[in-house]
Amino acid sequence: MSDPRHIAIIMDGNGRWATARGLPRSAGHRAGVESLRAIVHHAGVTGLEYLTFFAFSSENWSRPDGEVRELLALLKMFIRRDLADLHRKNVHISVIGERDNLSADVRGLLVEAESLTRGNTGLNLVIAFNYGARDEITRAVRSLAADVAAGRLDPQSISADLISANLDTSGMPDPDLIIRTSGEMRLSNFLLWQAAYAEFLFVPCPWPDFTPELFEEAIATYRNRERRFGGVEARASCHDKSQALSVAAASDGVAS
Ligand code: FPP
């Protein structure tokens, strides 16, 4: 299989990483930013097209106030400290998620990062901040419904492509590979629409321990997967009867 164009990462396990070391959870998030930096640098050098990080979910506001403040401060510090360097490295930054309930200073920094790097042609770094897929889909539906109500849009012309074009990820390819660290096996409201045919990889180590070597191992695992996009297997080579039966059953299914 060809290399992934778009990898999306759920950076999980910062809190457990810190607790296991007798440190406050905030130390885990700070260590998590170091991992993020290393992976962004590596992906830029190796020529990946799109790299998306789930940095703060629309449900993370329910964490203790101090932790929410820490995560907002880390985002601000990351942009202030790393923006010039990312721009020099030709990284193009976009931020997905709801902006309306973010403070003016955070919104300003997000706009600054996007405007400065708009013309860059290297790695597309996508930061999901105050992001939730159900919220994103709700906003898209609301906008399409408003167009229908205003007579600008015929309901019959609403297609999957039009819905995609109304999501925060408009214009980006769907993720080929979604990695979640820390051993949890769920999507947690991340890219629900876009993940329709993504490959998933759940790695046991917590995010602060995730290295460029593990990232390369994840890509190697992806290369060995077979993606069918709802179709059937390209070649069914059966070595025994039970395998032949399972191939037939899988090929009969609607979903693959
Ligand atoms: C999940 O670990 C991680 C998060 C909720 C936040 C991830 C954010 C960062 C790494 C830093 C901020 C981002 C930027 C772009 C600078 P958890 O706290 O849920 O860990 P646990 O499951 O072990 O408690």
TrEMBL record:
Record bears the keyword Protein transport: no
Family the UniProt entry places it in: Belongs to the UPP synthase family.
Subunit-level organization: Homodimer.
Chain positions recorded as substrate binding sites: 13-17, 25, 29, 57-59, 61, 63, 180, 186-188
Keywords for the protein's UniProt record, in alphabetical order: Magnesium, Metal-binding, Transferase
InterPro entries recorded: UPP_synth-like, UPP_synth-like_CS, UPP_synth-like_sf
Binding-site positions, Mg(2+): 12, 199
EC assignment: 2.5.1.-
Species: Paenochrobactrum glaciei
Cofactor binding: number and manner: Binds 2 magnesium ions per subunit.
Recorded GO MF terms: transferase activity
Obligatory cofactor(s): Mg(2+)
CDD domains: Cis_IPPS (cd00475)
Residues the record marks as active site: 12, 60 (proton acceptor)
Purpose of the protein: Catalyzes the condensation of isopentenyl diphosphate (IPP) with allylic pyrophosphates generating different type of terpenoids.
Domain of life: Bacteria
Pfam families per the UniProt record, alphabetical: Prenyltransf
Protein name: Isoprenyl transferase
